[in-house]
User: Fold this.
Amino acid sequence: MPPYLLHFAQAHEDFRRPEIDALAALEGVALTWVDYDPACPFATVDLASDAAAAALVRRSILVKHAYALWDAADDYDALHAAVRANPGNRNAPFMDASFKFVVETFNTTKSMPEKVAIINSFAYMAFRGVIDLKTPDATLGVLEAWTPPHDPDHRMTRVYFGLLVATGDRRAIDRYNLKRRAYLGTTSMDPELSLIMANMAHVKPGALVYDPFVGTGSFLVTAAHFGGVTVGSDIDGRQIRGTGKGSARSTDAPGSVSVHSNIAQYGCADRVLDCLVFDLAHHPWRNARPFLDAIVTDPPYGVRAGAKKIGGEKWRPAGVSPDASRKHAPSHGQGRFPATVPYDLDAVMADLTDFAARSLVVGGRLSYWLPTVKAEYAPEDVPLHPALRLVANSEQPFGQWSRRLITIEKVRDWEPGMHVSGSGLLGAKLESMGSAALDAFSSANSSDPATTVASTKKPGHKGFRESYFNFGADNNRRDP
Assistant:
């Protein structure tokens, strides 16, 4: 297979290869990684054809451009020698076409006169067509990789030359820019990451996509961008309706904007079914058969918005039974709101993983964020299940903590006796299972070795809220 060069954006380095691997699987593109360094935005891959390259990156959020790699070398002398030695039939189709050259660099900058000099050094190729800087028939790229600027031996390490064959979908990031979004909440997800998650989850036209912690609906619109049919739910209907605290913008009156404002703004009403009010721990979905193609979500960490689930009974007058108390409508006239209790993060993850194992079709994917304390994190913290396979685990660091984009694929049908496992996490489920706990523990440990429970380790996400707010206290604390 011929070589191609992927030019990545300078963002989210740990997400680059997982996104491309996910898109290769989604598009059915045979892909071989030849030269990949997370510290460099240029990666060489083998693909079958220009059409395969276009299919691979057409919806990528992290790839800027894909080039048919004509030649590469450590310096310009070697590059020009390779270009001159190559048979002329490679560029023959473009001899009379309109064209332009682009020069891209990493870890250095080039002035316009320097770029022009580089372009002119290829004059021996003798293209006869006109130069068209806006809509050329052919775009030829010269891409330089350098050592870091602070390196004492700051120098160019590689220069690539090739023909532009495809462009990624980075324009979608600006389309869903939060600054221009009609309804914005404190937990609204960055559009770049939302779109990457849709790619990781294999969202495609007609796929049924669910967000069980929908909030302000960020994932509904970005999944709909790729043609997914979306539905969301949340225990807090005020977030959906924009009432209560409402929008994160102080200029928006409560109830003046809502999730449906965003749906209308982006013209995706035909791809958003609705938003429902319930919690994942007491969901009304029937488990008779799998029905979801993808689950894309950002569970609450308890920092900006605490996780809650239905539990307990609201206060009722003495002598009034629970059944009778349900007949007493609150004075605000908006119906009865069930009492809620805290929903510990590891229990949230256990319920989410179990729900995915039951509700996804085989081949369906779950993509979600897992917050973790760096000093306490270990790979076995990620909740697993005998019916699910871990596809990718990518980190977005934030000092002492990070959040990890976890992508899991369903590989077999759910069966009774299957249970979630993971470091310290199974215990959260066993506590509420009573006599079934022993069977659950045996099931988790007798499955694939990758799902074996590490029973003593505290997972990096357990008690995350308390750890998060202690970071600042620890930084400010001085020894006596």
